[in-house]
Amino acid sequence: MDFNTLEESIRSRRSIRKWKKEKISDDLIVKAIELGTWAPNGGNFQGWHFVIVKNPVVITELANVVQATTDKIASWPEAATWREDMRRYQQNASFWKNAPVIIGVFGQKYQSPIDKILTRRESFDDEAKRIMAFRKSAPTAIQSVAAAVTTMLLVFHHMGLGTVWLAGPLIAKKEIETILKVPSELELVCLVAVGYPDESPEKDRRPLKDVITFMP
After folding, report:
1. Domain for residue 208, yes or no?
2. Which residue among 47, 59, 134, 193 is the one 20 to 30 A from 67 at the CA level?
């Protein structure tokens, strides 16, 4: 792939929320995940795990627990301040239930040597506690899994498939982990919905001058 082709693939990828009912080959799903596992990751720990869900009954069950939790949050008195926002959120909370494939993306906890030292000291050393807070603000395990998901989404797009990265379902994290029967050492990071796209959304990006700073 030359650079222009790579650039076009990156620029043309979109989050897809409507899919055709066409089935997806297992080979394509596995290949995208395989290439995702070549993403950079902390300490080469490779603590990710992917659960592929194609059974519409299970997908509906996943969507239902997310919708139920969303509806519960929307019913709380505190939600009244954002009533219109919550109404839209409720309407969209489980749109992905019609996707042909849902991939549950999980990660394991990871501790670098620095983390292990800080863990031993943070209970009595304020500086160690402060530094550990920095580490916890952007955990290595989450960054590693996110790199794999980003790679997967680009691969799926190159295959002609449409995806959307779903962080919202984390509100029903434990319920999803139970439904997918993952071992206790794995924690849900996100879901990825996959299918042949049935829409062509357009999105702009902020000007680079707003997001880049060159230090003098």
Report:
1. no
2. 47
Tens digits of per-residue pLDDT, 15-25? Answer: 999 999 999 99
Q: What is the crossing angle of helices 140-158 and 26-36, to 10°?
A: 140
d(C-alpha 34, C-alpha 30), whole Å: 6
Question: In 3-state terms, what secondary structure has residue 182?
Answer: coil
pLDDT tens-digit readout, 133-178: 999 999 999 999 999 999 999 999 999 999 999 999 999 999 999 9
pLDDT band at 210 (very low <50, low <70, confident <90, very high): very high
The pLDDT of residue 1 is 73
Of 176, 178, 151, which Cα lies nearest the Cα of 165? Answer: 151
102 with 193: CB under 8 angstroms?
yes
Element (H, E) at 213: none
Domain extent, residue 173, equals 3-198
Among candidate residues 137, 132, 166, the one with its CA nearest the CA of residue 149: 166
| Three-class SS state of 164 | strand
- Give the C-alpha separation, 131 to 148, whole Å: 26
Which residues are CB-contacts of 142 (< 8 A; sequence separation ≥ 6)? 107, 189
Assessment of whether the complete model's pTM goes beyond 0.70: yes
Query: In this structure, what are the phi and psi dihedrals at residue 215, rounded to the nearest 5 degrees?
Result: -75, 135
As a whole number of angstroms, the distance between CA 213 and CA 206 comes to 14
